[in-house]
Amino acid sequence: MSSATPPPPGPGMSPQQPIPGASSGAPTPAYGAPAPAPDAAPGMPPAPSASAPYGQPPAKKGGATKWILIGLAALLALCCCGGGAAFLIAKQINDGPKEAVTTFMDAVADGDKAEACSVVDPALFQSVGGCETALAGAGDTSGAVDKGSTNISSSSVTNDTATVQASYTQKGAPKTATFSLKKIDGSWKISNVEGVS
Fold first, then answer.
1. 164: three-class secondary structure by DSSP
2. Going residue by residue through the chain (197 aa), what tens digit of pLDDT does each one get?
3. Residues 38, 51: Cα–Cα separation, whole Å
4. Contact at 8 Å (CB) between 151 and 168?
5. 173: which strand partners?
6. For residue 68, what pLDDT is reported?
7. Cβ(46)–Cβ(40) under 8 Å?
8. β partners of residue 174
9. 196 torsion bin: left (phi>0), alpha (psi -120 to 50), beta (else)
10. How far apart are CA 73 and CA 79, in angstroms?
11. What letters, b where the CB count within 10 A reaches 16 and e where it falls short, cover 5-14?
C-alpha cells in the first residue's frame, strides 16, 4: 500500500471528501495529511507552518516575553520603592540625632527635666547621681535656652555614633554647642556636650 492511497473508511465512516475551493486538477492529499496551501505549486510539498505537528498541542506564544515583562516591571517597582525606602532610612538615620538634640534643647527651655533626660545617655551624669539629679542641681533651666531657638547647623552619623552642631539663643544671646550622640537600644542619646560658647 502506498502512502498516497488513503486507507479504506472504517465502519460508520464516509470516504474522504474533496477540499472545498481546491482546484479540480489538484491531487487529493493522503488521509490525515495536511492540505496544501492554496498558493502552493502543484507537486511541491506544503510550506512549513508555525502550527504544531498533529497530535501535539500548539506552542504557547509569548510565554518568555510575558515573564521578561513581568520581571522588568517588578525590578522597576523595587527600584522605585527601594530607592524611596533607602531615602527614608537614610533620612531617619540622619534625623534621629538631630531630633534628640532638639528634644533636649526644647525640654531644657521648658524646664522639663524628665523629657530632657529621656534623650541623654545615662552614663553621662552617672558620677553625679544621674541626669535628673544633675539638672535639679542646675536649678530652673527654663532660661538656659530660649524656646524654639535651636537650629541644627550640621550633623554627621558614623555607624552608631553621631555629632551634631547646634546654635541657639540664651536670653537673646547667640550660643553654639557640639553634641556627641550614640545609639543605645535603637535610640539616639546625647553622650557629651562640648564647645558651649
1. strand
2. 455 566 666 666 555 555 555 555 556 666 666 665 555 566 666 555 555 556 666 666 656 676 777 766 666 666 565 555 444 444 444 689 999 999 998 988 888 889 989 999 999 888 888 888 887 777 777 778 888 888 998 999 999 999 999 999 988 899 999 999 999 999 999 999 887 77
3. 17
4. yes
5. 170
6. 72
7. yes
8. 169
9. beta
10. 10
11. eeeeeeeeee
Q: Which run of H or E residues covers position 112? A: none
For 121, the grid coordinates are 545617655
- For the whole prediction, is pTM greater than 0.85? no
User: For residues 149-176, b (16+ Cβ closer than 10 Å) or e, as one string?
Assistant: bbebeebebeeeebbbbbebeeeeeebe
CA nearest neighbour of 155 among 74, 99, 77: 99
The side-by-side arrangement of strands in the sheet containing 151-158 is 151-158, 161-170, 173-184, 187-194
- Cell readout for 80 is 522605585
pLDDT at 13: 58
Phi, psi torsion values for 144, nearest 5 degrees:
-70, -30
Helix locations, the chain, DSSP H: 63-110, 113-117, 131-137
